Amino acid sequence: MEENEQDPRGSQPERPRPQPARQQQQPRRKRHLVRNILAGFGALIVVIIVIAAISSKSGVSTTPTGGIATAVATGAAKARTSAPGHTTVAVVGSSFQVSDGSGDSYRVTLSRVIDPAQGTDQFNTPDNGKRFVGTVFTITALSGSPQNEDANSDAALIGSDGQTYTADFDSIAGYTNFDNGTINVAQGDTVVGAVTFQVPDGVKVAQVQWTPGGGFGSTVQWEAHQ
After folding, report:
1. Within 13 Å and on the Cβ side, how many CA atoms surround 156?
2. Rounded distance, CA 163 to CA 157, Å?
3. Per-residue pLDDT reduced to its tens digit, 126-180
4. Which of 37, 68, 141, 167 could form a disulfide with 152 if both were Cys (CB 3.0 to 4.6 A apart)?
5. What are the beta bridge partners of residue 208?
6. What does the alpha-carbon distance between residue 215 and residue 221 come to, in Å, rounded to a whole number?
7. What's the Cα-to-Cα distance from 9 to each of 2, 15, 145, 222, rounded to whole Å?
């Protein structure tokens, strides 16, 4: 064979060499990594949901305190402290610790709401179209003796019509009006009296309020729906 003749096999292109196996698997490993990260986030979200559900069942609350605090009485009267600048609400039979203008503290309890109430005699009758409602309060002196506290000024009645009714000075059967409204009780002692209101027929008693210091203290309130 002459030297200038070419080998027929030399004209064929070389076959590409196969890539290493680890280079072919690199994209698959990346997909596995992304899948594992997403699965981890999913598990974290599930854990957060479970913790939130357990917290809600255990009574955890994020409601801020203050404002109107609702008190539910169970049987015996429970004493509660009125926060300055707020109206504290409870049910009939509950007690509140309040202070007079001098800082002497006492406990006030709305013991009963008598509706309708009867006057002490034939001269004590309500106006035409109205009825007597008696609110019986129990006062216990805690620190000192309440000074210048007048139950007729401290007590008020809210009707179902949204109107506020002030005390009437008629007396009802079975109770005194303290000492014509004035509360006289020594430290550690208890006194019971009633404040009378005249309420139009057809208007129900909604709430009863007590504001010590003749209306300048913190108001406490009892729900009296019937």
Report:
1. 16
2. 8
3. 999 999 999 999 999 999 999 999 999 999 999 999 999 999 999 999 999 999 9
4. 167
5. 157, 222
6. 13
7. 16, 13, 124, 110
